[in-house]
UniProtKB/TrEMBL annotation:
Pfam families in the cross-refs: DUF58
DUF58 domain segment(s): 254-337
Organism: Zhihengliuella salsuginis
Transmembrane segments annotated in the record for this chain: 65-87, 93-111
Region: Disordered, residue numbers: 1-25
Protein name: DUF58 domain-containing protein
InterPro entries reported for this sequence: DUF58
Compositionally biased intervals (Basic residues): 1-10
């Protein structure tokens, strides 16, 4: 072995030893840190859980009573007291005393008990857009002592109405009437009525709930069709089709008996005359079933997408109410799913809840496809969409309507001129005003 190789050998064997020592030291340090964290968690975990439970039990009620300004005043009082005690600042002690005095005075304003019997009465819980929703709130002092004046708050949707209740003698009542604006279709949460006590400084606020919450349905505006729906389904109710059936009401012919046929349909006179069993055969009759496909995709409506969508909802509601009045079977489908149509009220409630969506991948073609799959036996399909829907989209949507089913598309847009056109077997109506719906449907039925 050469001397040069002998000198390099210790260096080659020494480097791995130092690296291994460093790795072992790092592993020991990591293990020590991990053990320390486990010990800290064991000791501090219960404390953190208790603090969290304490905050949930007392913090939330305190946040409902103490306003943000009240928390600031309380924190300032504590801070000034600490500074005054630590540094001997008399001014800080005086400031802490004044802040504490403000909190005590505010506390006196919200203390006390008031016994009220509060009644909230809505004249109607379902109104149409533009109708007046009138209600009354009656407050009675049921205690044996005169009550101080109080403020009653009534939440209506996102707004809050405040009513001032004067000083009431025992068994005395105070009534306030109110009107809820119904400019747009919505489901408004009315109530609960709550009494509010608050100090003049706005530091503390105490609320007491007196009534339950009610839902006020502002239904879409509708128009009377004057029986015009009979124009486009008058020839569908009970009319026979070319499909044959073994059980129906429209007699077609007699045929030889086959195994599995219902014996109740055997024509015994013909069987006795021919010497073999003969059964009746019928033609299937079609029962009118209206299907409404309402598109929620706001991209298919005009520049004023919100107003045009409301027009489409109103048109769907008008057709649905007419079908319910004539006791027709009805189905309403949207991209968000079906709308309950077992009663006219449920249908209107469901259409009140639907909302247009500005960014939606599913178009009118998808909702028509879903409608055709869900209601395969429909006799008439109404397609409610906006003026932004192209003829190509309408043609693609009509391709999903089964053969023999009449399809009518209604393009809704405020200010548009009423018109009628045909795209193949699809009748396309342009609706610019809800009052023109009846006339347009009569033209479509002609």
């Amino acid at each position: 072995m050469s001397p040069r190789a002998t000198r390099r050998a210790p260096r080659a064997t020494g480097r791995p030893g130092r690296g291994q020592a460093l790795r072992e030291t790092a592993n020991r340090s990591a293990s020590a840190v991990g053990e320390a964290l486990v010990i800290v968690r064991e000791y501090t975990g219960p404390l953190v859980d208790r603090l969290r439970e304490f905050g949930g039990r007392f913090g939330e009620p305190a946040s409902r009573i103490v306003s943000p300004l009240g928390f600031v005043v309380a924190g300032t009082a504590v801070l000034l007291w600490i500074l005054g005690v630590v540094f001997g600042w008399q001014e800080a002690v005086v400031g802490a005393f004044m802040a504490g005095l403000l909190l005590v005075i505010a506390l006196l304003f919200i203390l006390g008990r008031t016994d009220y019997d509060v009644g909230l009465d809505l004249n109607r819980t379902r109104v149409a857009v533009g109708d007046r929703a009138v209600g009354a709130m009656v407050v009675e002092n049921v205690s044996k002592r005169p009550s101080f004046g109080a403020t009653m708050e009534l939440p209506v949707g996102a707004a809050v109405a405040a009513f001032r209740v004067p000083r009431l003698q025992p068994a005395a009542k105070h009534e306030d009437l109110f009107t809820i604006p119904t400019r747009r279709r919505a489901v408004l949460a009315v109530g609960p009525v709550r009494s509010v006590r608050q100090d003049p400084f706005g530091l503390l606020r105490r609320q007491v709930r007196w009534t339950d919450e009610y839902d006020l349905f502002v239904h879409p505006r509708t128009t009377a069709l004057d029986g015009s729906s009979a124009g486009f389904i008058r020839d569908l109710e009970g009319m026979p089709t070319s499909d044959l059936s073994n059980s129906d009401v429209s007699f077609h012919a007699l045929r030889d008996y086959e195994a599995g046929d219902d014996r109740r349909h055997i024509h015994w006179k013909s069987s006795a005359r021919t010497g073999q069993l003969m059964v009746r055969q019928f033609e299937e009759t079609r029962r009118s079933h209206l299907a409404i496909a309402l598109s929620l995709n706001l991209a298919e409506y005009g520049e004023e997408a919100g107003d045009d969508f409301e027009l489409a909802v109103s048109a769907a509601a008008s057709i649905g109410l007419q079908a319910a009045a004539e006791q027709r079977k009805l189905s309403v489908m949207t991209q968000a799913g079906p709308v309950r149509t077992d009663t006219g009220r449920n249908m209107m409630d469901g259409l009140t809840r639907v909302e247009g969506r500005p960014s939606m991948r599913r178009s009118v073609v998808d909702v028509v496809r879903t409608t055709a799959d869900t209601v395969p036996n429909a006799s008439v399909v109404f397609i409610l969409t906006g003026a932004g829907t192209t003829a190509r989209q309408l043609r693609a949507a009509s391709m999903h309507v089964p053969l023999g089913v009449r399809a009518i598309a209604i393009r809704c847009g405020h200010g548009l001129t009423a018109a009628r056109a045909n795209i193949g077997d699809l009748t396309v109506l342009t609706l610019g005003n809800l009052d023109e719906l009846g006339l347009m449907l009569r033209r479509a039925a002609a």
